[in-house]
Design a protein that fits this description.
The protein has 325 residues and is of the alpha+beta class. 23% of the residues lie in helices and 46% in strands. Strand 5 and strand 6 form a beta hairpin.
Amino acid sequence: MDERLQKVKERWNKMRESSSFHNVMVFLVFVVISALFWFILALNDSVQDNINVKVHISNVPDSVTFISDIPEKLHVSVRDKGTNLWRNGIMHKPTIHINFREYAENGVLRFSKDELNSSLKSIFGASAQIASVSMDSLRLVYTENKGRRVPVEVISKVYPSLGCTIEGDIMVSPSNVLVYGDKELLDTIHRVMTENITLKDVSESTTVEVKLRPLKGGRIIPSTVQVTFPIEPLVKKVALISLTPVNVPDGESLLLFPSKVPVEYYVAMSRLDDNDDPAIMLEVDFNQTYSSGNGKLHVEVKRYPDRLLNLSLKNDSVEYTIVRN
C-alpha cells in the first residue's frame, strides 16, 4: 500500500513539473477570470425576473381570526440591473411587512395598490421597475368573534370489494371543528360537511384526508379532517329461528312442522360470535290456512338487522296442523 502511494506521488510530482501541466493551469485561470468578468458585465445589464415576495402580517391580536386566506407570497415581475436583482431578490428573502394595527379596521384589513407598490419599491430600490404583481392589493376579512364548535358530517359513497362490508361507525378526526364568522353565521350553523368521498373496491379499513366544504363568509379550523372507513371481510352464519304464528283466532292454535327454520346470512368477521337470533323474526299467517290447498304455510321474514347481509331461508314454507282448544 505504501509503495503504491509513493508511486502515485512520484507521478504527480513529474506531471506538475511538466510544461504541459503549467499551460493547462494557466488556461484554466484565464477561463475562470473571463467567466467572472462576463458574469459581472451580465449583472450590470438590465434584466427582468420573476421573484417571490413573502407576506408577513405583524401585531395581530390573539382574538383575531382571518376569514380570508392570507397569501403566503406574491409573484412579482421586476426589471432592474442584474446586480440589484441579485442583491435584493436573491441574496435576501424579500418580504412585505404589514402592521395589522395600522391597516385593519371594522373587520377588514386593507392594503391598497399604492401601498403595495410603495412597499415593493422599498424592497427592490428606486431604480427597479415593477412590471406586474400577482395581486394588485390586499383585502383580508377578519373577525373577533369566538368560534362555534360544530360536528362534521361525512358525505361519502363507499363500495367495499366482494366479500367485504362496512362494519361499525365511520370515524372522523377531529369529529368537531371551529367555525368563525359574523354573528348571523354562527347563530345558524349547526354542522359542516366534507367534500364528496368516493371509494371503490375497498377490501380493508381505509383512512383518507378530506377537505371540508368552505362556508361563504366563514372560516373552518381545521379545514381538513381524517375519515376512517372500517372495512371487514364477511363470514357466513346459519341459525335455527323459531316461527311466530300471527292472526290466530281465539280458541285455536297452530302446530308447525318444523317449528324452526334454518336461516343463512353473512356478517362482518368481528360479529361472528354475536347472538343474532332474537333480532330475526319469521312469521306464518293463520289466514293463509283458508286458501292453502297444499297443507303448507308460507314463511315470511318480517324483521332482521341491516348488519345481516343476504339473508335467505332454506325452507320458505312449513306444514301445519290446527289445534282447537
